[in-house]
Amino acid sequence: MTRRKSLALAGVTVWFVAGTLAPSEVTLRAQAGTTRTVYISAVDAKGAFVTNLAAGDVTVAENGQVREVTGLAPATESCHVAVLVDDGGDGLMQGPVAELLNAAAGRALFSVSMLNPQSIRLNDYTASLDTLQGSVSKLRQRGRVERDTAVLADAVSWTARDMLRRKLSRPVIVIMTNGGDSAEREIANGILNDLSASGASLHLVHVVSVELGQVFIDGPTQSGGSSSVTTSTGGFSKAMTAIAMTLANQYKLTYVLPAGVRPSERLKVTTTRPQVKIVAPTRISSRVP
Q1: Residue 184: C-alpha distances to residues 210, 212, 265 (Å)
Q2: Within this chain, domains 29-75+250-279 and 79-247 share the same CATH topology
Q3: Helices (H) then strands (E): counts for the chain
Q4: What does the DSSP 8-state code read for residue 15?
Q5: In contact, 247 and 227? CB cutoff 8 Å
Q6: d(CA 72, CA 74)
Q7: For residues 91 and 139, is the Cβ–Cβ distance under 8 A?
Q8: Quick check: 58 and 269 in contact, CB under 8 A?
Q9: How big is the CA angle at 254 (ends 23 and 175), to the nearest 5 degrees?
Q10: Which pLDDT does position 251 carry in this prediction?
Q11: How far apart (Å, rounded) are the C-alpha atoms in residues 108 and 286?
């Protein structure tokens, strides 16, 4: 019998079992054009995940032009999740980080970084629970850390560029902050470009009172991620579980550009299914690998 471990700091362990990716049918037209891939999820009016969408249920438009959908199936590739912790040294995000690692165990490889005040990567992407346990243990109370609110946005840029360079599967950036960011607009535009180029989804969880700059206002929507506000450590934990559930219920969507058509950054994915909302990137890279 195989024994599975979980991180000791989380009260509840949730294991997700990946589905089987059905092979997509590629038409002759798709072979002649350029195939692109994005990851999406779908929720109903009650916020429950919709898990039975078919390719015929969705419409994809780039720059307002409808494109041919060639495949829609459960996403089974491992996620590469970069967790960025900006806790000001109070150590209160230790438990929520463990909650995320437990909830997405078996589906993802994680890197964990903390701001102290500069961003320090505690471990590279791994599924090793021993390694992750060691990183979580370092997120303890460390005394007050002097903040530079531009550092967190810079960490997003570095992480996104690193993901692009390494061509990681299903890249995800999760940010937990009680400090916010204040990147200048010109710098923020460059960071959003990095995020788009990487293909990573940005999930932000922050406390109510923090200042958010353009990266954290636009990044979650543009990348198909999420943004949550909380007032407590328990709220952070709840948000981590929700992010893990999103990753467990994503679809891999493929569509094709006709031969000779240049890709666009503007993307809109909709569905004909009533009372179903699609969560998808609204901005993607105009470059095709």
Answers
A1: 16, 11, 22
A2: no
A3: 7, 12
A4: -
A5: no
A6: 7
A7: yes
A8: yes
A9: 110
A10: 98
A11: 27
pTM for the model stands at: 0.88
Structure tokens at 76: 């089974």
Q: Which CATH class is domain 29-75+250-279?
A: mainly beta
Give 77-134 pLDDT, tens digit per residue.
999 999 999 999 999 999 999 999 999 999 999 999 999 889 999 999 999 999 999 9
Which alpha helices (H) appear in 167-232, and where do they start and end? 185-198, 214-223
Q: What distance, in Å, lies between the first and last C-alpha atoms of the chain?
A: 42
- Long-range contacts from 262-265, C-beta under 8 angstroms, 24+ separation: 262/286, 263/34, 263/36, 263/62, 263/287, 263/288, 264/62, 264/63, 264/65, 265/63, 265/196
Domain boundaries, the chain: 29-75+250-279, 79-247
Residues in the chain: 289
Domain 79-247 belongs in CATH node 3.30.70.3040: no
Q: How far apart are CA 219 and CA 121, in angstroms?
A: 22
H/E stretch holding 210: none
Concatenating the DSSP letter of every residue in 38-89 gives: EEEEEEETTSPBP----GGGEEEEETTEEEEEEEEEE--SPEEEEEEEE-TT
Phi, psi of 22 (to 5 degrees): -75, 140
